[in-house]
Amino acid sequence: MAIGIHDQFETILILDFGSQYSHLITRRCREHKVYAELLPCTTKIADIDFKPKGIILSGSPYSVYDKDSPHVDPAVFELGVPILGICYGLQEIAWNLGGEVTKCDHREYGFAKVQVWMSHGDQLSRPPADFHVVGHTDTAPYAALAHNSKPIYGIQFHPEVTHSVRGKEVIGRFILDICKCTPNWTMVGILPILPLMEREEFIGKEIARIREICGPKGRVIGAVSGGVDSTVAAKLMHEAIGDRFHAIMVDNGVLRMNEADQVYEMLNKNLGVNLTVVDSSDRFLTKLDGVEDPEQKRKIIGNTFIHVFEEEAAKIEAAAEAEEKKGADPKGRVEWLLQGTLYPDMRFVPLAAFSTSPPLLSSVTPFPGPGLAIRILGPVTREQVKILQQADKIYIEEIRNAGLYDQISQAFAVLLPVKAVGVMGDARTYEQVIALRAVQSEDFMTADWFVFPAPILKKISSRITNEVAGINRVTYDISSKPPA
């Protein structure tokens, strides 16, 4: 009988109510060398084939009193294991055990005086019986609760985000001291601090595992964007099966300036990955023309991407079938689809041991799948895309020139749907506005705006207004995330 992971390691069960931070809770537990597993909040306890050492209830965008709000299986409270509710999780505990939750008169999104991260529109107005208060803020009188006799706790703030000072310690106290978990799980995310030899050993094992899964024949296809996740996955697959792996990049017309060429240079020439770049920019831009709603933009780009990718995959499959019929193809048919990880604590690991990796790859900042289309806050046109590409290119160039790129987690330009009156030469102008954003973040779930030296911002603004036709004003976004 195979030994499962729950037989080897004690497990913290995280029930996900749809919070944008749920994966961070998992990550924080694993940073304490405790295995954590994330499951939907609607999971029935009877369907779980292991007994967790403790349970964490995540936050949620819902209100516990919403008609369609998710609720936990009441059997959770009968397991007899420690429970920690975070934000909505606290409210869910109260909702189940007789407390009362109401809308906040003063919603909290950001830092509170106790230096923790608040992000809630509802709050506890009356705790359940047998609970006592262990923490509060000026506007949240029940910011932290504990049961009088059972190991059940609730906190209104988010300890999983880096903005919460000692938040990681809060999670550690719960899983190590209260749940009594043994910190013996080794996660991939700690590999960067291990000696190079051990990292190379890990990669060697992963390559061997991929070869075993794929077998001696059979092709694999995978979409790549040039980002760290898909590039690492592509490089690992290439190292494992060589040219049997076909990487596909779709140029949707809303990439950054010259991005498709740069990705081809990096993957094909520098990393040796078998990459095909499909230029479908006209197809995408025709469908996007005049579309203003950001969700509609996402749907158009997502659906069109699927169609283009499937068409290209069909071409590879047809070529493989033709070669197979001729009896001259040892590579086999297309049998696998490669997908990269979304876990930010895992994605950088394999790259460090690839001696052929270009140095800039590990510092590539995140770029949204819908590309510049959602950074154009208004209708998408070819002219608008060109304007934003030029402004964004100048912005990133000057950040690099100033030696600040590695200090910034993400930087980008946004084309606003407004015009401003200005003066250029001796004439008045009525042209568009570019907003610049740069943030520092450890996990991209929360972020602080980056403080530029004034001369750098001045130079960036001057270049954009002078070099990009149609722009006469540049602003800088100083909002934190959340709420931005």
Observed structural traits:
Rossmann fold; EC 6.3.5.2; 484 residues; 4-stranded parallel β-sheet; globular; single chain; alpha/beta
Overall description:
This protein is of the alpha/beta class and 484 residues long. It folds into three domains: 9-178, 3-Layer(aba) Sandwich (Rossmann fold), CATH 3.40.50; 188-363, HUPs (Rossmann fold, 3-Layer(aba) Sandwich), CATH 3.40.50; 381-476, GMP Synthetase, Chain A, domain 3. The protein is 32% helix and 24% strand. It contains eleven helices and 17 strands. The chain has helices spanning 5-8, 22-31, 88-97, 167-178, 196-214, 228-241, 259-270, 281-288, 294-326, 382-401, 454-467, and strands at 11-16, 35-40, 54-57, 83-86, 100-111, 117-126, 131-135, 144-147, 152-155, 219-223, 245-251, 275-279, 334-338, 410-424, 427-440, 448-449, 471-476. The strands form four sheets. The chain has a seven-stranded mixed beta sheet with strand order 2-1-3-4-9-8-7. Strand 14 (410-424) and strand 15 (427-440) form a beta hairpin. Mean pLDDT is 84; it is low at 116-121, 188-194 and 342-363.
